[in-house]
Amino acid sequence: RLSTKALQSTSPEEAAMVLTDTIAGGKAAHDTARRAMYQALDEQYKVPVTLPAMKTQSEVTMVQGMLRRTAPVKSAAPAPATPPSPILGPTGQPAREAVLPRAVESEPLTFDRAADLRSQLMAKGREPGDPVVRRQAKLLAKSMDEQMELAATQSGDPAFLEDWRAASAFAKEGKRTFDNKFVANLMSDATIAERFGEQLAGTGGAEMARKIRLVKQALDYAKTVKPGLQTEDALDSVRAGWFQTKILKAEATGELKGQTLLTQLNAPQTQRTMRELFEPEQHQAIMDFAHTAQIASRKPEGGGQMVVQLMQPGAAMTGVTLAVTGTAPLSGA
């Protein structure tokens, strides 16, 4: 009988959770490094950032809550060179006494706090809920980014401008990698991660290929900001879980149906998923195994036993190892 053994026992759903936890570790490391860069700018140069103008009371309330959550005991920034942007009072008109606490309203933000506010606004813009609030948050995040750039360019200090550009480039690279809608939702919602695992084990296609690309990009970047992160282990876990699922689907009463496996893998959508998920040599090794299994499953009884092995988590998955041993009978395809 032709049998199979996948040394990786993690289900696709569990593997997806490991994957998202790993990406989250990279994002946390990026956030820490980004904040340290902005804090260094504030300590060395003390360039103030002015809040953007807000048009509605709901915008003021939103920003007020975010700033209160991260309000410092004492502001490190000097008084602004220009008056702060107008903030609406209860009547909806610019008021001398703003709705925000005076310590926040009357003094500009440091770059660290401005970046933190921008991050909170971007996160708010991704949350489910009132589409008007989400749109307001996204526009304010964009305005906050523009205010930071304006403060940097108007500082007149070439050294500060150079350091700010480095910090800004680092922050934006992390934003592109970790804050795209799919990856951000994957990290924030366990049910989405589990559903991704289920979908990954399905037929695949263009949308799944796109998601795999985004995940691999996030893992690659996470590794650059946190070199000790076991990103390859996480990806290998997903690869092995995916292949194990295909093997199980091709088994009947414990016997691998070689033709069934080959038909599954040859489906155009499955091939597209494989090209994104596996390295070329891994892809080829799996197809070689499927072809061998299809041929072996047509042999008469006594032909031997075939074992497929996927490397366990923590080891590089270099391909599929085939071994023909014993005298167990083979099943027909």
How would you characterize this protein structure?
A hairpin with a 2-residue loop joins strand 1 (251-252) and strand 2 (255-256). The protein has a two-stranded antiparallel sheet. A two-stranded antiparallel ribbon has the order 3-4. It is built from 13 helices and 4 strands. The chain has 333 residues and is mainly α. The radius of gyration is 27 Å and the shape is elongated. The protein has helices spanning 12-45, 57-69, 102-105, 111-126, 131-153, 158-178, 181-188, 190-200, 206-225, 231-249, 258-266, 268-277, 280-296; strands at residues 251-252, 255-256, 305-309, 321-325. Helix 9 packs parallel to helix 12.
Question: Whole-number average pLDDT?
Answer: 76
Low-confidence stretches: 1-9, 79-106, 302-333
Biggest sheet features: 2 strands, antiparallel
Radius of gyration: 27 Å
Shape: elongated
Briefly, what is this?
With 333 residues, the chain is mainly alpha-helical.
Keywords, separated by commas or semicolons:
13 helices; 333 residues; elongated; disordered C terminus; mainly alpha; single chain; two-stranded antiparallel sheet
Question: How are the SSEs ordered, and which strands pair?
Answer:
Layout: H1 12-45, H2 57-69, H3 102-105, H4 111-126, H5 131-153, H6 158-178, H7 181-188, H8 190-200, H9 206-225, H10 231-249, E1 251-252, E2 255-256, H11 258-266, H12 268-277, H13 280-296, E3 305-309, E4 321-325
Antiparallel strand pairs: 1-2, 3-4
Helix pairs in contact: 1-4, 1-6, 1-8, 1-9, 1-10, 4-5, 7-8, 9-12, 11-13
